[in-house]
Amino acid sequence: MTYAIEVNNVSKSFNKKPVLSNINFKIEAGEIVALLGKNGAGKTTLIRLLNDLITKDSGTVKIFEQAKPDRNLIGVMSQNSVRLDRVKVKEAVNLARSFYQNPLPFEKLVELAGIETLLDKFTDKLSGGQLKRVSFAIVMAGNPKLVYLDEPTAGMDVDARNEFWQKINGFKKLGITFLITSHYPEELEKIAGRYLIINNHRLVFDGSLEQMKEQNQTVQVKFVSQLEKESFTELPAVVDINENNNHYTLKVNDLNLFLPSFIKYLNQVENLEIAQSNLESLMKKWMED
């Protein structure tokens, strides 16, 4: 089995304040893994550390079994894209390709990144979403085997974000390993097969969405009602209640206990919906202080 990333007991502090503590995980080559956590949880620090941009305090890191990563195998897309004045997209892409011994063929790179219509445009005239696509093409120009995407869709509108993730799916066929951070967990459900969650500088979850659901057996009960919030607070198996303008969301950990007591309110509620928790709501459990 080939591991793209191996992290063993890694810790990092800034000014004696722990940012990462005893982090352990392995990522197989070809996996797409989401790295999740609150702002300031240590996600970007971990990516910088994996890319050998900062030093760790303790522990070991191996990238494709090497303690010193081969930068020809790695691509990094940060949150901020750089605009180059009076440089056309095709010039920027070819410049990036020129730095590598085995770059992706220009035509294939352009197709996979979806920038065919942008080649003759100047990079400083692109929209935010267009610039992100070009930045992604530049990251992939060297035909990397491991790619870090740090908030790659920040600043994009919904359509641009959806299009970007479709392009990532195109690269999946090449067997590339992706480690992705994002503020949009609902998007990651479509692409990531595994999730790492960091909270309070520790890795608190490592597994699939299904495993996350198994460890947090809750459902969401949504409805509209004129009843006061207190009517539902004493119902069995209700672990959380959110109310906004008579729109309720109840988090329930056992429907068999909840439903018999809730039935008496059915004629006073509307738009009843019972749904499994999504990734965003599941994450909250792992991010509680």
TrEMBL record:
Where would one find coiled-coil regions in this protein?
A: none
The answer to keyword ATP-binding applying to this record is yes
Pfam family for this entry, one: ABC_tran
Which keywords fit this entry according to its UniProt record? ATP-binding, Nucleotide-binding, Transport
Query: Ranges for the ABC transporter domain?
Result: 5-225
The superkingdom listed in its UniProt entry is Bacteria
Write down the InterPro entries for this protein, in alphabetical order. Answer: AAA+_ATPase, ABC_transporter-like_ATP-bd, ABC_transporter-like_CS, ABC_transporter_ATP-binding, P-loop_NTPase
GO MF term set: ATP binding; ATP hydrolysis activity
What PANTHER family does the annotation carry?
Answer: ABC TRANSPORTER ATP-BINDING PROTEIN
In Swiss-Prot or TrEMBL terms, this protein is called ABC transporter, ATP-binding protein
Q: Which organism is it from?
A: Lactobacillus psittaci DSM 15354
